[in-house]
Structure formats: structure tokens, C-alpha cells
Automatic annotation (TrEMBL):
This is WD repeat-containing protein 76. SMART domains: WD40. It comes from Rhagologus leucostigma. Keywords: Repeat, WD repeat. Gene3D superfamilies: YVTN repeat-like/Quinoprotein amine dehydrogenase.
Length: 465
């Protein structure tokens, strides 16, 4: 065959090239066939002789894949990329104010008007300030035991995973707002006890990370998504745009009782100060606090200039009055976390306790001495080892606003339950119902004055005890 002195590999390679050339010739691809025939019929010296390496300066640019460069090849049109199914189902929300029109407005407009009318009416009523002292633990446990979950108080309010919730402070009507991962906000009048008591609004394009009814005007519902902070004003039936940014927002809290300013956390670690009174939709200040990630921010209940930020493994107290663009130092650091921190919150009355949830399967309670003056946190007083309470994505331990020393957290224990702990680490009560609660409630909210607890799960369902 003329190539007997070649190795077995080289002979097999030449045989393959020859067969391929014949195949392409049969397809009448003349140019390709001619080129391959030329390769297959090269002389022996051309097959075995090595090329002399080129000098570095003479080497041409390396050929790169047109596919990786996303360049359309010559004379070969690209196939049209099919649109994602979610693009039509969840369209991008336009910039600016949005009318407060629910998704099902065309079919149930009268029920929607009734829901918004109820929200407006209960927002005008002033709550009774009598008996606002923190109850003793025995009376508190009795009140917890009296709370039950019934079938009519379970409903799918939003379409997807519940990412945030807020409960209206009204003492006459139970009105709950829930935000999901698609930017939907569901309003549910639990007291209505009918199918028409809940409606879905779409004020955001991304998941709703945080929500609060305004403490001074509960006719306003503020909601934070990845790119916008909006205020749903039921008196004007509009979702106003307060702040918009290309940064990913994670959480917010009010810096004043009149809710005119707020501290906003970013997923990339920064925090921003937002003033609702200014016409611009950009933050007043953006500050680098040295975090890689900021998941939650929480303002001290007494001294509003102090706020708590929780990040990857960082939990620190800052003074908003001294924030600047760069070089911010914390007043105090709450150390000891070895993994990602999901949340950190001051206790509701004095702020003398902080509860944190960490992915190392521990709930930590920090205390302080003269927090109003020194803000120097001592080493954590308790570590509650509870692997069943670890909820890293997401899972928040929240204080009961009526009880300075007790907090709640969703549990993965069977049967599924929401647990109430004292700040000593003692388990006080477990909310459960094997018939009505079969999932983990990682997001929970408690009424500020009534014995009402709402738990939200990953399918958009709310459970009201």
C-alpha cells in the first residue's frame, strides 16, 4: 500500500480520511471532497514530516469558536430562539406609578372594590392603646394555647413561594398581605370568610423581599422587590414608585415613626438611605458597610439612629447618622456565626435582645448592657442547638411584638409546626395542626396587638392561627 512503514495509528487515520473523502464525493460536495482527497493523497513525506515551529512574533491570532463568540456563521442562518414560557405569563412591570388593579379585575371588580374599601375603612380607625404592657410568661403561654388553626383560615393567596408578609394593625379585621417570588402581592381579608376575600396585584417584576404597613398610616403598604421600593396607597388606588435602582434590594425598615425615611439593604452588601418625601427615585445615600451580602436590616425600636445589618457571617450595629459612601465602621459586632446568617432582629420593646438565625443550625440570642448608651454587645448568652429550625433559604426568627422576651420560628419537625421560644432558650409552645398544616412555614408574621399568627409556605399558602 506504500505506507507500510507508518504506525498503525497513522495508517488507520489515512484510511478514515480516504473513506470520508469518498463519502463526501458521493454527496457531490465538490469543494469539500476535493479538499479531503487532497489530504488523503498527500505524499508520504508530507504525512510524516513535522512542520518547523513558527516564531512567536510571526504567529497569527488563534482561531476561536464562532459558537462560543455567539457570531452567526456565514450563509447559515441561526435557528430562532423560542421565547421562554414565563416571559408572557409574568411580563415586566413598567416604571413609575401603577394603578391598583388586581389580576382578575375584569371578572371580580365589585369584590375587589369591597376588599380595597375594607382596607381603607380599617386604616382610619385608631387602635386602643390600653393595656400595652408586656404580659408575664404564664399569661402569654395561656394566650398561645388558645390560638387554633381551622380549615377556613388556610388559603393559597399568591401563586408561588411566599417571600414576605405583613399584617394590618387593625383590631377589627384581619387583613394580610403576602408577596411571592414572581413580584405578586396577595391581599386577603381573612375576616371576610368567603372566596372573594383575596385578590392578587402585580406591582413588581421580581420577588417581593420585604413588606411593611406604614406604622403611622396603615393605608400605605410598602413593598420591596429586587429593583424597586413601592408604596401601595389605597386612598388613591395606586402603587407609587419610591425608589428604583440597578442594585438588588434585599430588605428595608423605617428610620422614623412617620415612615418618611427608610434604611434599605442590598444583596451585594451595601445599604442605602431612602427619603419618601423627595421626588427623585434614587437613594439619598448609598453606603459600603464592608459586607459581602446584606440580607436583613432592622432599626432599633427606641433609638432610631441605630440599625442592625445581617450578612454572610456578619451581624453588626451601625449609626445611620455617620454613614458615608466608604469606610464605615460598625459600633458593635455580634460574633460567633460560622455560616450564612439568614436574619437578625432587635427585640420589639427595648431592643435589649437580638435573635439571629444561622445556617450552622443555631438560633442565637445576644443581650446588651445599657444598649441605649453603650451599644456594646456581650458574647451570646444562649445558643439554641436546633437542626430542625435551620431555614437558610429563607427562614426568619421574628419577635412577637407583644412580648419582649419571646420569638417565633418555623420548624422542619414532624408534624410541621411553628415554634415559640423564650429568650432563655426554653420552648414555650408549638403551633401545629396535622389536618391543616403539612408544610414548613419559613415566613411568619404576628399581629402587633391581637393573638393572631400567620405562616406562609413555599406554595403561596397562608395559615392563620
Amino acid at each position: 500500500d506504500g505506507y507500510s512503514h507508518l504506525s498503525a495509528y497513522e495508517r488507520k487515520r489515512l484510511k478514515n480520511i480516504t473513506e470520508n473523502a469518498k463519502f463526501f464525493a458521493a454527496l457531490k460536495l465538490h469543494e469539500v471532497s476535493a479538499r479531503l482527497n487532497q489530504i488523503a493523497t498527500k505524499s508520504q513525506s508530507h504525512v510524516t514530516k513535522r512542520r518547523k515551529p513558527k516564531k512567536v512574533e510571526d504567529e497569527t491570532a488563534r482561531r476561536r469558536s464562532m459558537r462560543l463568540l455567539r457570531v452567526e456563521p456565514l450563509d447559515v442562518p441561526l435557528l430562532e430562539t423560542p421565547a421562554r414560557p414565563g416571559a408572557e405569563e409574568y411580563p415586566q412591570v413598567p416604571v413609575g406609578p401603577l394603578p391598583m388593579v388586581p389580576e382578575d379585575q375584569a371578572e371580580n371588580s365589585k369584590w375587589t372594590e369591597a376588599l380595597l374599601g375594607t382596607w381603607m375603612r380599617i386604616s382610619e380607625l385608631k387602635a386602643d392603646d390600653a393595656d400595652r404592657g408586656t404580659p408575664d410568661i404564664k399569661r402569654y403561654q395561656e394566650s398561645l394555647s388558645s390560638m387554633v388553626l381551622s380549615e377556613e383560615n388556610v388559603r393559597k393567596v399568591v401563586k408561588s413561594r411566599v417571600c414576605s408578609m405583613a399584617i394590618h394593625p387593625s383590631e377589627s379585621t384581619i387583613l394580610v398581605a403576602a408577596g411571592d417570588k414572581w413580584g405578586h402581592i396577595g391581599l386577603w381579608n381573612v375576616s371576610c370568610r368567603s372566596e372573594e376575600g383575596a385578590h392578587i396585584f402585580i406591582p413588581h417584576s421580581f420577588q417581593v423581599n420585604c413588606m411593611h404597613f406604614s406604622p403611622c398610616n396603615p393605608a400605605h403598604l410598602l413593598s420591596l422587590s429586587n429593583d424597586t421600593l413601592r408604596c401601595g396607597d389605597v386612598t388613591r388606588a395606586v402603587f407609587d414608585e419610591i425608589c428604583r435602582s440597578e442594585e438588588n434590594f434585599s430588605s428595608f425598615d423605617f428610620l422614623e415613626e412617620n415612615a418618611s425615611t427608610a434604611i434599605v439593604g442590598h444583596w451585594d452588601g451595601d445599604v442605602a438611605v431612602v427619603d419618601r418625601r423627595t421626588p427623585e427615585t434614587s437613594p439619598e445615600l448609598s453606603a459600603d458597610i464592608g459586607f459581602r451580602r446584606t440580607r436583613t436590616v432592622h432599626v432599633h425600636p427606641v433609638n432610631k439612629q441605630y440599625f442592625l445589618a445581617a450578612g454572610s457571617v456578619d451581624v453588626c450595629v451601625f449609626d445611620v447618622r455617620y454613614l458615608k459612601a466608604k469606610g464605615n465602621k460598625p459600633l458593635s459586632s455580634l460574633t460567633g456565626h460560622t455560616k450564612s446568617v439568614a436574619s437578625a432582629y432587635f427585640s420589639p420593646v427595648t431592643g435589649s435582645r437580638v435573635v439571629t438565625v444561622c445556617a450552622d443550625d443555631k438560633l442565637r440570642i445576644f443581650n446588651s448592657k445599657n444598649i441605649q448608651v453603650l451599644l456594646i454587645f456581650k458574647k451570646q448568652s444562649n445558643k439554641i442547638k436546633t437542626h430542625e429550625n435551620s431555614q437558610p433559604k429563607p427562614g426568619w426568627a421574628i419577635w412577637d411584638p407583644k412580648q419582649e422576651h419571646c420569638f417565633l420560628v418555623g420548624s422542619m419537625a414532624q408534624p410541621r409546626q411553628i415554634q415559640v421560644f423564650q429568650d432563655t432558650g426554653k420552648l414555650l409552645h408549638s403551633f401545629c395542626n396535622v389536618d391543616c398544616l403539612g408544610s414548613v412555614c419559613s415566613i411568619n408574621v404576628v399581629h402587633p396587638s391581637q393573638n393572631i399568627l400567620v405562616g406562609g409556605n413555599s406554595s403561596g399558602r397562608l395559615h392563620v392561627f
